[in-house]
Amino acid sequence: MSKNVNIDWSNLGFSYIKTDFRYVSRWKDGSWDEGQLVEDNQLTISEASTALHYGQQCFEGLKAYRTKDGKIQLFRPDQNSKRINNSCRRILMPEIPEEKFIDACIKVVKANEHYVPPYGTGATLYIRPFVIGVGDNIGVKTAPEFIFCVFCIPVGPYFKGGLAPVNFIVSEYDRAAPYGTGGAKVGGNYAASLYPHEVAAKKGFADCIYLDPATHTKIEEVGAANFFGITKDNKFITPQSPSILPSITKYSLLYIAKEYLGMETEEGDVLIDNLDRFTEAGACGTAAVITPIGGIEYKGNLHVFHSETEVGPITKKLYDTLYGIQFGDVKAPEGWIVEVK
Ligand SMILES: Cc1ncc(COP(=O)(O)O)c(C=O)c1O
């Protein structure tokens, strides 16, 4: 580590901290510029930017991990690159070449290397790439210019005292329409989730579960995470729908369940009226890796899976394997890890 920073690694939460450098690249007249690292964390943009009025913006979230031998590694950044380009296409923004995206992430991590938490703390460096439509414009159309930016912040482990289950409540609101933007990581989806989250939190739940917007019979998302359940016969099952954000953690768990744990896996419907088929359930995403689901409240009844206080054995194995891969303690499948040199 090149420089000492005054951070209490074991007490980090998920809060913004201004790190030293961020990457900024601008698109104009049909192409992206070279991009550069800058110290200033303020962006000056036109008051008429489409990002401000029409929600023309998208983002990503991934992490850099410190391994036991002090190396720094990224987990599947090519998948975040594919997903940001999918989001860009959906809202008519220019794509970012994969090499430019991964290179920007690596540059930012290297420039802020002293903010990558030490191995063993469970803390990581969270990387936030985003694209916004900017420039002078007022009609509802795509922007004349764009900014691609990547910044990073050190964040604490989601679970400080070990994996603890939490309860969720089914929301009466939808986060996305059937052929809307649910499958893209665009800001509007998150603006739409703020109020339902607040309603769930006020009732004492960690977050809400969104059902499929067309029939309200199937589980789609768990807050800003994907759902999985483990059946009585040891199958890993996760919902499939175009309005779910394709979670990189979820696809990694599907692979781990099959190839590392020898389980059967399935992407299919998860009916809210048939939760009895599951002995364990969880929410998965970059932030928490896995959040065990204690219970789900639906129509006034709390359905408890394994336990409201203890993580189930399969969920624990899935978590340990993925966490081990991310921190370099378990051998990763080919191509999943990119070392920051
Ligand atoms: C709505 C939503 N679902 C699921 C996820 C989990 O995705 P990932 O595993 O790629 O972090 C996220 C986080 O990015 C999200 O915002």
Automatic annotation (TrEMBL):
Pathway the protein takes part in: Amino-acid biosynthesis; L-isoleucine biosynthesis; L-isoleucine from 2-oxobutanoate: step 4/4; Amino-acid biosynthesis; L-valine biosynthesis; L-valine from pyruvate: step 4/4; Amino-acid biosynthesis; L-leucine biosynthesis; L-leucine from 3-methyl-2-oxobutanoate: step 4/4
Parts of the chain that traverse the membrane: none
Keyword flag Transferase: yes
Catalytic reactions of this protein: L-isoleucine + 2-oxoglutarate = (S)-3-methyl-2-oxopentanoate + L-glutamate; L-leucine + 2-oxoglutarate = 4-methyl-2-oxopentanoate + L-glutamate; L-valine + 2-oxoglutarate = 3-methyl-2-oxobutanoate + L-glutamate
Keyword annotations from UniProtKB, A to Z: Amino-acid biosynthesis, Aminotransferase, Branched-chain amino acid biosynthesis, Pyridoxal phosphate, Transferase
Annotated family: Belongs to the class-IV pyridoxal-phosphate-dependent aminotransferase family.
Name of the protein in its database record: Branched-chain-amino-acid aminotransferase
